[in-house]
Amino acid sequence: MRPSRATMPLSRLLPPLILGGAGFSHQIISNPTSAQALQVLKRAFQLGLRAIDTSAYYHPSEMLLGDALAHPDIASNYTRDQYILMTKVGRITATQFDYSPAWVRNSVMRSLERLRSEYLDVVFCHDVEFVPEEEVLEAVRVLLEMVDEGHIKYVGISGYRIDTLTRIARRVQEKYSRPLDVVQNWAQLTLQNDRLVQEGLAAFREAGVSCVCSSSPLAIGLLRSNGVPVGDLGDFHPAPQGLRCAAKEAADYVAARGESLAALALRYSILRAQSISASNFRVAIITGITSIAELEENLDTARQVLRVTGGQRWLWTADDAAPAELGQPKIEEYEALVKSVQDILGVWKDYCFPSPGDGWDVARKRPVDTRL
């Protein structure tokens, strides 16, 4: 049964931690499978992690997640209103975008079919800096229509460029006399790059946005001991060699002190989001997960700074409660490690990846033709 038009702000519903569906894509791992998705999702639901963010671009994530959600091990134990599904439209491949009204509508309906659901909780316009802003505004209009039709509950935009995201958020509020429900930004609420806080959050609040999702707390796998992930599509990571070397040095430094850079980075992002969030404005973290071992490792880290009730639901803490749960000696140790890592990063601290970069023609939505 489709829901009626949402009246409650998404910030009241979205948990502080969200499972990222890119972990079931060819971009991140080799040979993603239905069995992998089912194992991870089943365990995630058992542990109370029941919000999922994916995209049609993260092929074949939507299909694998749909298979898992329809499996008796999940379908017989969880009703649709017990979990949150978020996906994206507009980006088709690394170099192909379609923000036309017909494609946006087709993409949403296809996602519903793939995810085996009668409605989607959130739909984002994907990587908005790659296309003309007028096309994004038109795509948002179509998504708002689909909210009225009951296919979608909340509408958002996603991308890397904070200036683009804030500008579009303001334009949506002006054009449609209502704000976006949510904005998603990636890899800019991390140990390496904290620009989302510095440049984005106040502007989003001014544009009426009540919820921000920060994905890639490990900067797409940069902030871990074993280097950037390489899936079936090869090494797509945008980090230059200098940043990769600095991240490796930081990982080695943290490991020598009995810690994991990945755990430290995830803890940093969650704590940072918690310190910013309030009752009417939330910052949630999306963490990519590819295996049960990775899931449990991430949730062990999250439990240090988030509360969970009876294994059923991740809860927001009071604004200043999460750091105190670590205990003062642990806080001091954590803060010292954070400072050391950021010192090692040096000139790479707050470095931004080029997006879309000089090689992309935004007006034509395609790579620049260097033959001209």
Strand order of the largest sheet: 1-2-3-6-7-8-9-10
- Poorly predicted regions are 318-324
| Estimated structural class | alpha/beta
Helix content: 40-55%
Q: For the record, what is the CATH homologous superfamily label? A: NADP-dependent oxidoreductase domain
Give the C-alpha Rg: 20 Å
- CATH topology, what is it called? TIM Barrel
CATH class: Alpha Beta
- The gross shape turns out to be globular
Compressed to H and E, one letter per element, the order equals: EHEHHEEEHEHEHEHEHHEHEEHHEE
CATH architectural name: Alpha-Beta Barrel
Overall pLDDT level = 90
Tally of helical runs: 12
Tell me the total number of β-strands: 14
For the sheet with most strands, the description reads: 8 strands, parallel, barrel
Strand content: 15-25%
Distance from N terminus to C terminus (CA atoms, Å) equals: 54 Å
Notable traits:
single chain; D-arabinose 1-dehydrogenase [NAD(P)+] activity; TIM Barrel; 372 residues; two-stranded antiparallel ribbon; alpha/beta; 8-stranded parallel β-barrel
Please render the helix and strand layout as text:
Elements: E1 17-20, H1 34-46, E2 51-53, H2 61-70, H3 72-75, E3 84-89, E4 91-93, E5 96-97, H4 101-114, E6 120-125, H5 133-148, E7 152-159, H6 162-176, E8 182-186, H7 195-206, E9 211-215, H8 241-255, H9 261-276, E10 282-288, H10 292-303, E11 307-309, E12 313-315, H11 321-324, H12 328-345, E13 360-361, E14 366-367
Parallel strand pairs: 1-2, 1-10, 2-3, 3-6, 6-7, 7-8, 8-9, 9-10
Antiparallel strand pairs: 4-5, 11-12, 13-14
Helix pairs in contact: 1-2, 5-6, 6-7, 8-12, 9-10
